[in-house]
Amino acid sequence: MTAEPTDATAPLPAEGLLLDVEDTSAGADLKAKVREAWQDFARALAIAFPQLAPGTVLDITLDPTASGTGDAVYEVRVTAGESGALTAAAVGNALLPEGYRLDRAAIGALVALGWSPPGVLDASRDFFGLRLPASDSGRLAVIVSRTLRDVYGAPHPAFLTYAASDADGTAVPVPALGAARPLAVDEPGDLSDEAATDRALARFGEDLVRLPLADQVAAVVATLLKTTPDALSVDPDGDIGIRAGSAMVFVRVRDNPPLIDVFSPVLTEVEPTERLYVKLSELTNRMPIGRLYCTNDTVWASVPVFGRDFQPTHLMLAVQVMTGLADELDDRLHGEFGGKRFFGEGDKPAIRRGDAENTGMYL
């Protein structure tokens, strides 16, 4: 999909169509939302690149805390030149620890996207390099987006952070880059509904950080649902319940290690069969984040969120993904494998039996 060219918008080139992924599986709605988020991110980049003042450096990084990549830092840097050229650099294997380096297929994908191997472009050193005029900002936006998503493995733009600085290293503002998280923001840009929620969370400021993790989670979920923490539905186990159509999503806080579980009993009283396990494995492989599994007679969906260095946007993404996923999959899986949905039409509400045993396997 290409952006409509305007005075303030750089159009995405034909390569932008490569951001689309056709999928008619049970996770199609979820994948559509993720695809749209990446397209919004690419459009935002196409707008931001021509606005970078000469000497400005924009770093876009896959957050290792959210992605579980440890010491590996996958990053793309874009520098605005004096002549209007945009020079981009993408992390190569010399900068990655063993076990997180790019394989031949990933390196081939970078070259196919237009990156020159490390050392080919002047001053690129250990980075893959690319230089384009500002008039090609739309093409560069697609290349950067696909590099972060397809090569570095970012599941969603919300797992990205970005920051810009001038030639002296002083932080400078840039337009909002979709769902990506700015590390330093001086001026708010145009806000979408999701960004407005982010802004509402930002009003908590340092007060939110000082709260215990459980209170932080309650504040985030309440803000997402446009209510107050006191009005949330909390069961005797301390789990926050969120109804999503015929499904129920729970948010549970664990202390050791600090972790937030966003999970849903998609189906209960279902017969575990080899065909069911194969189906769940297939669907899990198609999901951008999270997993599906069956234990005893219950099919679960789960997305874990790190509690250490807690980031509200990560929890927001997990809740949004899970509410859409659970409501979609319980109907589809019920039609194929039977069982009971939590709020299925004509079904009695599922009984949450043995949570202490059943939920342990989704970690």
Quick overview:
The protein has 363 residues and is an alpha+beta fold. The protein has helices spanning 28-48, 64-67, 104-113, 137-151, 193-202, 205-210, 213-224, 274-286, 312-337, 355-358, and strands at 57-62, 75-80, 85-91, 127-133, 160-165, 181-182, 233-234, 240-244, 247-254, 259-267, 291-295, 298-306. The chain is 33% helix and 20% strand.
What do these coordinates show?
With 363 residues, the chain is of the alpha+beta class. It has helices at 28-48, 64-67, 104-113, 137-151, 193-202, 205-210, 213-224, 274-286, 312-337, 355-358, and strands at 57-62, 75-80, 85-91, 127-133, 160-165, 181-182, 233-234, 240-244, 247-254, 259-267, 291-295, 298-306. Strand 2 and strand 3 form a beta hairpin. The longest helix has 26 residues, at 312-337. InterPro entries: TY-Chap_M, TY-Chap_N. Residues 213-344 form the TY-Chap central domain. It comes from Planosporangium thailandense.
